Amino acid sequence: MTRAVSLAAGSVAVALAVLAMKLVAWWLTGSVALFADALESVVNVAAAAAALVAVHYAAQPADANHPYGHDKAEYFSAVLEGALILVAAFIILHECWQVWQAPRTPELSLIAFAVAATATAVNAAWCAVLFKQGKRLRSPALLADARHLLADVVTSIGVLLGVALALASGLLWLDPLLAALTAVNILFSGARLVRESVGGLMDEALSPQMLARIRATVAAEAEGAIEAHDIRSRQAGRSTFIEFHLVVPGDMRVVEAHAICDRVEAALKAELGSAIITIHVEPDTKAKHSGVLVL
């Protein structure tokens, strides 16, 4: 079992434990805001299960049908998680409207608040683990789970403070209002997650900062060449794909051009980590006098 799969399995266990605690808190108080918080944890369980399946599949080695590997499977999990977040937000808004029309007083329960606070603390701790390991492993599924948990932690803190305020002040409308604000926050979180995941499925280019690092590395390491142009890139889960044309003097021997390519590839992999690099060597008659000029 890979590290990513172990973390994804851990997310399922944590999500189930947090869901149980939040359901207990809601059952003890009857608060619609705590109900909204618990419903988001239902989404967490489904999303964590989907991430587990996706990460397991993505870990499979390349084969004849998938020569570039299965890394993109993680993006499907992230898209599904985003969609589930949106569904949960609409369900919460519906419940808020029902309670707004017929307000009910949540029951004060210190035990419920303690249970809900513990659930939030567990989510926060696991969120930190997923962020750290997701970045290290370059896993879209784990990072998507971490972002969702972060939104859950923020809304849970707001819900706990708001329910306490509603009980202390007697303003019953604060409970559904806070639940509605939780739903809006979830909507933005889900929409952002879907956009980022679809970008990965659509072979979106690397960020301008990453492209600048690639250009700088090529310029520094391609001594003997003239220029590099038509640089293209994309990210597929843990793998970064880079390809470009490298212009060399027309009379350069093949072995010399190959040595330059090897040097550039080694430097890019050291800079970016896991990368699949394709370099097309061209003679100086193909120079475009643009892109990366080699100094």
TrEMBL record:
<dbReference type="InterPro" id="IPR036837">
    <property type="entry name" value="Cation_efflux_CTD_sf"/>
</dbReference>
<feature type="transmembrane region" description="Helical">
    <location>
        <begin position="149"/>
        <end position="171"/>
    </location>
</feature>
<keyword id="KW-0813">Transport</keyword>
<keyword id="KW-1133">Transmembrane helix</keyword>
<dbReference type="Pfam" id="PF16916">
    <property type="entry name" value="ZT_dimer"/>
</dbReference>
<dbReference type="InterPro" id="IPR027469">
    <property type="entry name" value="Cation_efflux_TMD_sf"/>
</dbReference>
<dbReference type="InterPro" id="IPR050291">
    <property type="entry name" value="CDF_Transporter"/>
</dbReference>
<feature type="domain" description="Cation efflux protein transmembrane">
    <location>
        <begin position="11"/>
        <end position="202"/>
    </location>
</feature>
<keyword id="KW-0812">Transmembrane</keyword>
<keyword id="KW-0472">Membrane</keyword>
<feature type="domain" description="Cation efflux protein cytoplasmic">
    <location>
        <begin position="208"/>
        <end position="283"/>
    </location>
</feature>
<feature type="transmembrane region" description="Helical">
    <location>
        <begin position="30"/>
        <end position="55"/>
    </location>
</feature>
<feature type="transmembrane region" description="Helical">
    <location>
        <begin position="108"/>
        <end position="129"/>
    </location>
</feature>
<protein>
    <submittedName>
        <fullName>Cation diffusion facilitator family transporter</fullName>
    </submittedName>
</protein>
<dbReference type="InterPro" id="IPR058533">
    <property type="entry name" value="Cation_efflux_TM"/>
</dbReference>
<dbReference type="Pfam" id="PF01545">
    <property type="entry name" value="Cation_efflux"/>
</dbReference>
<dbReference type="InterPro" id="IPR002524">
    <property type="entry name" value="Cation_efflux"/>
</dbReference>
<comment type="similarity">
    <text>Belongs to the cation diffusion facilitator (CDF) transporter (TC 2.A.4) family.</text>
</comment>
<dbReference type="InterPro" id="IPR027470">
    <property type="entry name" value="Cation_efflux_CTD"/>
</dbReference>
<feature type="transmembrane region" description="Helical">
    <location>
        <begin position="75"/>
        <end position="93"/>
    </location>
</feature>
